[in-house]
Design brief:
Elements lengths: L1 E6 L5 H11 L5 E2 L4 E5 L12 H9 L4 E6 L10 E4 L1 H5 L4 H7 L4 H12 L6 H10 L7 H9 L7 H10 L3 E9 H11 L3 E10 L2 E7 L5 H14 L7 E5 L5 H5 L3 E5 L3 H6 L2 E3 L14
Parallel strand pairs: 5-6, 5-9, 6-7, 9-10, 10-11
Antiparallel strand pairs: 1-3, 1-4, 2-3, 7-8
Helix pairs in contact: 4-5, 5-6
């Protein structure tokens, strides 16, 4: 197994020295100003009973350092698919919250969104219907305004996507959000596959309804598996990135799960957590 530590700021020599002692990794070597790696002499216990993961969390977190322990014999090109959640993962906002802001209901909708992402609301379908119902009567032009005025890519998104494409991986954006946004992002970022929910629009107004099957946790996982099958890949050749509890099922079917600026329940179950670095932190985990 390989230990990788990375940060947005340059890693200090004293940080490297402390991490060598903490991880029992005397070979931890700085490979750039912000990244260091070491081959571990023994594999950390999966159940965390050796205390290494907790120790790394406790020491690295306050210092803005992310760490990961990954198989040392893998390359990025060994994977075939990168699947991403959209809201608060590929992009920095929750689109439905920003839409609701245009009718003065952002606080109410955001509270439901946050509870759902933390796993406190277990029925995602019902939580989405409740939020979308509050948008009834809103002019559909608001969707374009949210995209143009508020939607921003997460740090490192474009660099990560360029690198995974160059390594031969396909890309999937699978979202409990809306096709109005995934469709534009697909074209803009040259994404191979997308799946999301469709807001019903009649006479230029949102009806407060969602059309068709809601993209919930089960549908997200099924979409990852179906996409793997479509490109001739095994699920263990998929990397899945997400931030909320409705991403856990698709993360569980993947060969590598990455929690990005995620809720605690997601960080606890993911293989890797990026709490500080951008999405391009993925590129430091494996040789290209």
């Amino acid at each position: 197994m390989t230990l990788i530590v990375q940060s947005l700021a340059p890693l200090a020599a004293s940080d490297i020295d402390m991490l060598r002692q903490l991880a029992g990794a005397p070979g931890l070597t700085q490979i750039s100003e912000t990244v260091a790696r070491a081959e571990l002499s023994s594999e950390p216990r999966a159940d965390g009973s050796d205390g290494l993961r907790d120790a790394l969390d406790d020491w690295c977190g306050p210092r803005g350092i992310d760490w990961a322990i990954v198989p040392g014999n893998r390359q990025l090109s060994d994977f075939r698919l990168v699947a991403m959640d959209m809201d608060s993962t590929l992009i920095t906002i929750e689109c439905i919250d920003e839409i609701a802001d245009f009718c003065g209901l952002k606080a109410e909708v955001s509270a439901i969104t946050e509870a759902a992402m933390r796993g406190e609301i277990t029925d995602f379908n019902e939580s989405l219907r409740r939020r979308v119902a509050l948008l009834k009567g809103l002019d559909a032009s608001v969707l374009d305004r949210v995209y143009a005025e508020r939607l921003r890519l997460s740090p490192g998104a474009e660099r990560m996507l360029e690198a995974v494409r160059a390594a031969g991986l396909r890309t999937l954006l699978v979202s409990g959000g809306f096709v109005h946004f995934t469709g534009q992002l697909q074209s803009r970022l040259q994404l191979d596959f997308t799946r999301a929910n469709t807001l019903e629009i009649v006479d230029g107004k949102l009806t407060g309804q969602v059309l068709g099957e809601i993209v919930n946790a089960e549908v997200k996982a099924r979409t990852v598996l179906e996409t793997c099958a479509a490109i001739g890949a095994r699920p263990e050749q998929a990397i899945v990135m997400g931030d909320g509890s409705n991403d856990l099922k698709m993360m569980a079917v993947a060969g590598l799960s990455v929690a990005f600026r995620a809720k605690p329940v997601v960080r606890a179950k993911a293989d890797v957590a990026f709490n500080h670095v951008g999405l391009d932190g993925l590129l430091s985990l494996f040789p290209v």
